[in-house]
Each structure stands twice: as C-alpha cells, then as structure tokens.
C-alpha cells in the first residue's frame, strides 16, 4: 500500500497568514494527489485534484504543488472559514490511502 | 449534480452486522463508481472498498476482506455497505462517495467529489 505522510499534524495561524501543508507519498504517484477540507461533523470537500487543479467553486487562495513525491497545499491568505482539517489522498492505485490530516486552528 | 443521502445512526452489539444505505439522486446508481470510506472518532480516513471501472468489479480493502459486502439496488438507486462480525474498533462514521474522473493536462484523475453526509455506527456491549 502507498503510505501518505502529512505534516504538520496541526498548526495555529492568524487570519491573513500564508499557510502550507505537506504530504509525502511513499512511492511515485505522479500527480494523482487530491486535497480535501473537512469541518467538524461534515463530509470532506474536494479542494484540489491532480496535485494542482483547483476544483470549481474553490477560492483561488487555495493552491497545490508537487515536487517528486512531495505535495503541498498552500492557503495564500487564511480566512475565518478556512479553519478546518485538511487531508491529502492518493488516487494512483488501490487501496486508496489518505494522509493523517492537518488541523488548522486559530492563533 | 449527484446527491447522496445515507441512513441514520446505529448502535450495534459486538459480533452483530450493520448495513448502511446510500440513496443516490441526480444520477443512476449503476452509472456511478461508489466507494465507502470510514472515519473513526477523531481519526483520519480509511478506505473500505469501491467499484473499479477498469475491472468492472468491486474491490475491497485487505483489512475488510471477508467481512464487507458492497451492493447496489438499481430500482431504488441505492447503494449498500454491509459489515459483519462487528467489534468496538469498527465504531466510526461511514461515508459513501462517488469516484469520478477529472481531466487535467490531458490526463484523467480520480476524485471523490460527492459524499454522503455520513452515518455514525457505534459498536458497544
């Protein structure tokens, strides 16, 4: 199985801050990497697909990048509604696997 | 727009079975690649299985082999996930999600764009 290692597990930031979250795959997954946002008691919401494709309706302050097997989700200017938990997910091969999540909290 | 509505919360005894439903609207269930993912309290996501369009078969995660069955009922456009021999570690929110393919840079990428609202299943004696 492909392991997805996400870091940090949590972070504290202020409104307006630039925030980056990293996900590392245990083997090559090309760009088959998606990012989801989850708020308490809700289902995940797709933000980024194919490592850097912005899902329709998602604000442009969200962006994704890739360097080899390292992937990054960046929020350019954190907004109050962005405080949530973020997960990466590889769709390169079954079984589908997720990162452990990054909780973004208000400083 | 595909919408998925799941059945309500359940409490089960260890050793029992559970069956969660996922009602599809906006599309025929037979035209979708339905997957199931669970999330234990305060934890991340664990993929349980789903339809593989390349093989035309449902693939189950190794951790659930022999305990899980995923089915569909086309007349009602409903998908089901049944898990047997329940133990306390199976306490989780169970989600159905449809896998579809987005095109980006001339390649296709699988994503979960539509999710059910989740069903909490508590396993306790």
Question: Strand percentage of chain A, roughly?
Answer: over 45%
User: Based on helices, strands and strand pairing, what is the structural class of chain A?
Assistant: mainly beta
Secondary structure category of chain B: mainly beta
What proportion of the residues of chain A is helical, as a percent range?
under 10%
Number of helices of chain A: 0
Can you characterise this structure?
- The complex is a heterodimer of chains A (107) and B (125).
- With 107 residues, chain A is mostly beta strands.
- In chain A, 0% of the residues lie in helices and 50% in strands.
- Chain A has strands spanning 4-7, 10-13, 19-25, 33-38, 45-49, 53-54, 62-67, 70-75, 85-90, 97-98, 102-106.
- In chain A, the strands form two sheets. In chain A, strands 2, 4, 5, 6, 9, 10 and 11 form a seven-stranded mixed beta sheet that branches.
- The model of chain A has no long low-confidence stretch (mean pLDDT 97).
- By secondary structure, chain B is mainly beta.
- Helix content of chain B is 0%, strand content 58%.
- Chain B contains no helices and eleven strands.
- Chain B has strands at 3-6, 10-12, 18-25, 33-39, 45-52, 57-60, 68-73, 78-83, 92-104, 107-115, 119-123.
- In chain B, strands 2, 4, 5, 6, 9, 10 and 11 form a seven-stranded mixed beta sheet that branches. Chain B has a four-stranded antiparallel beta sheet with strand order 1-3-8-7, with no helix packed on it.
- The mean pLDDT of chain B is 96.
- The A-B interface holds A 31-32, 34, 36, 42-44, 46, 49-50, 52-53, 55, 87, 89, 91, 94-101 and B 35, 37, 44-47, 50, 52, 59, 61-62, 95, 97, 99, 102, 104-105, 107, 109-113, 115-118.
């Amino acid at each position: 199985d492909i392991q997805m290692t996400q870091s940090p597990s949590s972070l504290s930031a202020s409104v307006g801050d630039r925030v980056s979250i990293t996900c590392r795959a245990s083997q090559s997954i090309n760009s088959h990497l998606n990012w989801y946002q989850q708020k308490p008691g809700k289902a995940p919401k797709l933000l980024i697909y194919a490592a850097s494709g912005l899902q329709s309706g998602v604000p442009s302050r969200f962006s994704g990048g890739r360097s080899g097997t390292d992937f990054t989700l960046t929020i350019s200017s954190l907004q109050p509604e962005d405080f949530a938990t973020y997960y990466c997910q590889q769709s390169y091969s079954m079984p589908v696997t997720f990162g452990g999540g990054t909780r973004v909290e208000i400083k | 727009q595909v919408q998925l509505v799941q059945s309500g919360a359940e409490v089960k005894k260890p050793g029992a079975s559970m069956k969660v439903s996922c009602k599809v609207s906006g599309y025929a269930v037979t035209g979708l690649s339905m997957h199931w993912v669970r999330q234990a309290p305060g934890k991340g996501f664990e993929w349980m299985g789903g339809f593989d369009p390349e093989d035309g078969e449902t693939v189950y995660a190794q951790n659930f082999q022999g305990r899980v069955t995923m089915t569909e009922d086309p007349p009602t456009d409903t998908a089901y996930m049944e898990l047997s021999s329940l133990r306390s570690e199976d306490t989780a929110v169970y989600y159905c999600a449809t896998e579809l393919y987005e095109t980006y840079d001339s390649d296709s990428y699988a994503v979960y764009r539509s999710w059910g609202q989740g069903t909490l299943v508590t396993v306790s004696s």
